[in-house]
TrEMBL record:
<dbReference type="InterPro" id="IPR009294">
    <property type="entry name" value="Aph-1"/>
</dbReference>
<dbReference type="GO" id="GO:0016485">
    <property type="term" value="P:protein processing"/>
</dbReference>
<comment type="subunit">
    <text>Component of the gamma-secretase complex.</text>
</comment>
<feature type="transmembrane region" description="Helical">
    <location>
        <begin position="175"/>
        <end position="196"/>
    </location>
</feature>
<comment type="similarity">
    <text>Belongs to the APH-1 family.</text>
</comment>
<comment type="function">
    <text>Potential subunit of the gamma-secretase complex, an endoprotease complex that catalyzes the intramembrane cleavage of integral proteins such as Notch receptors.</text>
</comment>
<protein>
    <recommendedName>
        <fullName>Gamma-secretase subunit APH-1</fullName>
    </recommendedName>
</protein>
<feature type="transmembrane region" description="Helical">
    <location>
        <begin position="102"/>
        <end position="120"/>
    </location>
</feature>
<keyword id="KW-1133">Transmembrane helix</keyword>
<dbReference type="Pfam" id="PF06105">
    <property type="entry name" value="Aph-1"/>
</dbReference>
<feature type="transmembrane region" description="Helical">
    <location>
        <begin position="140"/>
        <end position="163"/>
    </location>
</feature>
<feature type="transmembrane region" description="Helical">
    <location>
        <begin position="17"/>
        <end position="41"/>
    </location>
</feature>
<dbReference type="GO" id="GO:0070765">
    <property type="term" value="C:gamma-secretase complex"/>
</dbReference>
<dbReference type="GO" id="GO:0007219">
    <property type="term" value="P:Notch signaling pathway"/>
</dbReference>
<feature type="transmembrane region" description="Helical">
    <location>
        <begin position="56"/>
        <end position="75"/>
    </location>
</feature>
<feature type="transmembrane region" description="Helical">
    <location>
        <begin position="202"/>
        <end position="221"/>
    </location>
</feature>
<keyword id="KW-0914">Notch signaling pathway</keyword>
Amino acid sequence: PAFGLFIFTIARDPLRIIILIAGAFFWLVSLLLSSLIWFIAVKASDPQDERLQKGLLIFGVMFSVLLQEAFRFLYYKLLRKAIEGLVALSEDGCSPISIQQMAYVAGVGFGLMSGAFSMINLLADALGPGTVGIHGDSQLYFLTSAFMTMVLIFLHTFWGILFFHGCEHRRWWEIAAVIIMHLTVSGLSFCNPLYVGSLVPSYLLMAAAAAWAYVLSGGSAQNLRRFLLCKC
């Protein structure tokens, strides 16, 4: 889905491509820092203590989420400065891209990189050793992982819109809502291999975030109806 979003909404605009790549880079840096901290914590602890290792894993996931949102905020501040520069350089005093469009493209950049890393981990598991489900475990691992990757890509896109809107209008509760949703979706992954317990709530949150982002972007029920009926 991220590649479809890229091709149909971003690929033809060089400025949007730059914003997307920069957003992907910010997400990548946040992952690198959180992975480094988790690696140090694991190496400094007792590897035989399973309870401690599980606690460190939960800490690593939650810390990674908070770091991603911190970098999303830093990216917003950077783009806000970029808009001011574009306005100063333009002849008509207008920016060639709005903050809403930047929020969307930045969200796609976060989601694209997140999905790419999810697929890399999935392909690494597919190489073996062993066969998924051979000892009675669920054989839906790869299918559910693909669906989870898709929902995360869309969620990052919607979260980008919500987060930037909250920063732009100083609605800090919108930023808090994004962080809570991100923590919730990441925490749901610990329900696996009970995949229904993670996929269903994640898709419900995605639907809610999509509707919220649509309204904040200026959408209406009438516009949605016209789109579904293919009316101009």
